Amino acid sequence: MTPAPTPDGQQPQQSQSRRTVHIGSVTGSAFAVGDHNTVTQHQHAGPADESQAELLRAVQELRADLARFVASDTTEVLDAELVSVADEIETAGGAAPGRLARLQEALTAAGALTGTLASGVAVAEALRALLGG
Question: Cα separations (Å) of 121 from 28, 40, 77, 112, 113?
């Protein structure tokens, strides 16, 4: 891109040194480079322990598997519970027992479908470990 001519018709000289910034990976920090920037930092708790992390992974896999099926009332209720559990784990570090119980009920209601999916079985096993039953 060529700079516009100055009022006297001359071409301005281009700066010989360009300033560049290269940023690789940043974790747990916020920063801004340049003039007039705003920094916004969002922090999520993430899973509080390995059992919550395992449930989160299983929930994400089951949601991906459910997306391949024709939606029904049962799958929509199950998906809504899966979303709620994933959000709670990601923001609070863990899903509360009441939320886990609602997910278990939705999973049971969709049993004919989820019982045939490895991801459905993984969610059921993770729930049993967390709910103790």
Answer: 34, 39, 18, 11, 11
Q: What is the DSSP string of 68-122?
A: TSPP-HHHHHHHHHHHHHHHHHHHHSS--HHHHHHHHHHHHHTHHHHTTSHHHHH
Confidence class for position 49, pLDDT limits 50, 70, 90: confident
Centroid of chain to Cα 86:
8
Q: Under a CB-based contact definition with an 8 Å cutoff, are residues 81 and 106 in contact?
A: yes
Count Cβ atoms within 10 A of the Cβ of residue 63 and give its class: 0-12 exposed, 13-18 middle, 19 or more buried.
middle
